[in-house]
Structures are given as C-alpha cells and as structure tokens.
Amino acid sequence: MAHRGIAAGNALTRTEPRPLLSHRDLPAELHEEILGLAQELVRSPDAHRGILAGSRIGLLFSVPSTRTRTSFWRAATDLGADAISFGPGELQVTTGESWSDTGQVLSEYLDGLVVRTDGPLDDMRALSRHVPATINALSVEEHPTQAIADYCALVERFGAAEGLRIAYFGEGNNTAAALALLMSRIDGVRLDFYCPSGFGLPEEVIAFVNDHHAPGAHLRLFDSIPAIPDPVDAVYTTRWESMGKSRGTTGWRSAFAPFRVSEELFARFAETGRTVFMHDLPAVRDGEVAGPVLDAPYSLVRHQARHKLTAAGAALLWAFGYATI
Fold first, then answer.
1. Does 2 reside within a domain?
2. CA 59, 60, 64, 68 torsion-angle sign
3. How far apart are CA 104 and CA 179, in angstroms?
4. What sign does the dihedral 218-223-227-233 (CA atoms) show?
5. Do 95 and 222 fall into the same domain?
6. From residue 129, how far is each of 9, 22, 95, 287 by CA, in Å?
7. Where is the stretch described as Disordered (predicted)?
C-alpha cells in the first residue's frame, strides 16, 4: 500500500462511529484512512483541536499503563472530549458482571471507550457491540495503536515507510503482532522476526500477513541469529515479560538470551548512520536491551513515545467516524 501525502489542516469527512480493535479487521483502504489521519496530526497537531467537543470517552485500563493511558487522555482532551478514567478494580466486571452487560450500561453515559486489559480481544468486542467507538489500547492478542505510533516514528526518521527493512527480536507478542499486521500492508517492507523456538508470532497472524501483504512486502521467520545477517533499517525489541508479569516457568531466560539487543548484536544488523533502534517501552535495561543501545543517538524510543499521542489522536478521530478528504 503506497501512502499519498496529506496536506496539513485538511478538512475531515465524518461517517458512523466504528471500533478499532485489530488490524486484521481492516481492509487496506481503512488502514489508509487511519494512517492518513496520523500523518495529518503529525503535520498539523492543532488543526482539529476541539473537534470532539461534547463527546464523553471512558479510559478503561485494568492493567498498568504509563504512555498509552496518558497519551489517550491528552489526545481526548486536546480534541475537546471529556474523559473519565477507570483503573483496575473500579468496574463491576471484577465482581462477575459480563463485559457485554458493562458495555450496555456504559453506552447510556459514554460515546467512546479506550480499553486495555490482560484478557482476550473478545472482551472488547463485547463492549463494542454497545459502544461502537471502542479502541483496543492493548489486549493479549494485539496492540494496534502502538504499531501506528511506530509507523509515524519510522516515517519521521526515513521520510517514508515503503521498502523499509525491520528486524524484530524476542517474543512474538501483542506488539509484535500489531507491527507485523500493519507494516506488512506497506509496499516493499521486509519484516524479519527473530524469536526463540516456541515463542514466535501466532499462526493466525502469520497466515493473515501471508494472505494480505502489500506488493513486495514479505515476512521472514527465524529461531536463531545468523552469523552474517541481512542488514536492516530498524532493530526492534520489546520487554520479555509483558507488563512485568512473571512467566512462572524456569529456563525461558536462557532461550531468550541470544535475542538480547546488545551493542554487538545491533552492530551486526546495522548500516552505519542509517539503522535505528526501537522499543515500545517500558524497557528493562540490560534485560532485553543493553542500556547504551537504549540511550544511543540512533535510538527512536522517545520518538515512538511522543507518537503515542499522534496514534491516540488518529485512533480517536477514526473511531468517531472521521477521515481525511
């Protein structure tokens, strides 16, 4: 999918509210809409300030969040919406009420929901049947808005996303799934996933990418690090224990150790002066990544974090039915 330029301050069209739950739900033209909105906000972040005035948005975060929760609050208020935040244990789902019943009640008070849980995507689908403008801010399966932030950071650095070469190291988790599902829709992108055996991308994600990738885009899967790898434009990793939760098993660290992004590993994949490092944060210094790599001039982590705000704004606008003309 090639992405046309978006002029700053474009007028927006509006249709009906719709959920943003998984990149697998979206045909290529709707990906184009979301990424177009993101580019609009990059070029003119204040152009649509107040456009959601009168809207009421719930931020339902049942697990910890720093960047995603704060960026969605900021994006909602910048766009003019009123936002209420629900933390862990503050809704009756913790006492046995179903997600569907919760959504039915919340639809009486709210126009949109931003949801992060450690449960399945089906919980959010149950909410979205009653509150259509429901956004997945992270589920077990996928982290769709993180991939939008990553896309924005890459375009900011390289000028375009077409033809980029990305190497991901570690578990094929929800961030990895979203990265694969979004970036494989862009022309010519090469995605190399280096994951310990048994910790790779889910089969359904692989199958979707193989069936829906853009022209020239392709996915390659590895369970070991080659001595002389193909160079890449971006080296990406994520936390080995998502949200700090223990795996509860022994021996997994030794399986992950070869995939740690050390200075030496980064150098093996890098083209001097071009290759960048990426991490969705939070990071465990000297865990999945060496501290000097995280802090290096070639690290894009702060740009990714800043574009969480871009992604949140684009997701909110899209979920409320907006698109660039």
1. no
2. negative
3. 32
4. positive
5. no
6. 32, 15, 21, 40
7. 1-20
pLDDT < 50 stretches in the chain: 2-8
Q: Which among 194, 181, 190 is positioned nearest to 146, based on CA atoms?
A: 181
Domain range for 198 is: 144-305
Provide the CATH number for the domain around residue 92.
3.40.50.1370
The 10s digit of each residue's pLDDT in 89-138 is: 888 998 999 999 999 999 999 999 999 998 999 999 999 999 999 999 99
Locate tokens 């948005």: which residue?
57
pLDDT of residue 9: 57
Share of the chain above pLDDT 70, in %: 95
> Would the pTM count as exceeding 0.90?
yes
Cα gap 65→229, rounded to integer Å: 35
pLDDT at position 246:
67
138 and 148 housed in the same domain:
no
DSSP letter string over 138-156?
--SS--HHHHHHHHHHHHH
Q: In whole angstroms, give the CA distance from residue 75 to residue 52.
A: 10
Q: Are residue 79 and residue 194 in the same domain, yes or no?
A: no
How many independent structural domains does the chain possess?
A: 2
Please check whether residues 66 and 116 belong to one and the same domain.
yes
Other Cβ atoms closer than 10 A to 224: 11
Residue 4 lies in a domain: no
